[in-house]
Amino acid sequence: MDDKPLPRIVATRFTRRFSEITANDVALVGGKNAALGEMYRELRPLGIPVPNGFAVTAEAYREVLARCGAWEALREALAGLRPDDVADLSARAARAREIVSSAELPPEIVAEILDGYSALRAEYGPGVTLAV
Fold first, then answer.
1. What is the mean pLDDT of residues 85-112?
2. Which terminal residue of the chain has fewer beta carbons within 10 Å of its beta carbon, N or C?
3. How many other β-carbons are positioned within 10 Å of the β-carbon of residue 54?
4. How far apart are the C-alpha atoms of 83 and 101, rounded to whole Å?
5. Helix (H) or strand (E) holding 38
């Protein structure tokens, strides 16, 4: 394992670095990220090369939807949902995806994500690839 110091990925309201995430943080960052954080924290000290990273929090997701007024649109899209009607479910799901994917990221969330990415580039080089 390399002994050079790792760049600091700053924990903020909307991102958490893997070194700060445990298996107990599923509500904060989701199951996959909680598992990645747990592996990074527990296996890396044992010499197992687990890649570093950061997670965008569930709070960031809620903030994006709140800022663009998406919650009401999502409620409307799902009102009267008929679970036994596959065509209706499909149409409502498409509308919900459209609402979420059209939401713009607030500048402070973008800044936190870019800070985390910059730290990973400093650690792994400009060709670093990420999973999202």
1. 95
2. C
3. 28
4. 23
5. helix 31-43
Structure token pair of residue 108: 């402070």
55-67 confidence digits (pLDDT tens): 999 999 999 999 9
Beta strands in 1-132 (DSSP E): 15-17, 54-56
**Alpha-carbon dihedral of residues 58, 60, 66, 68, nearest 10 degrees?**
-130
pLDDT digits (tens, 9 = 90+) for 13-37: 899 999 999 999 999 999 999 999 9
Q: Is 22 exposed, middle or buried (0-12, 13-18, 19+ CB in 10 A)?
A: middle
pTM of the model as a whole: 0.78
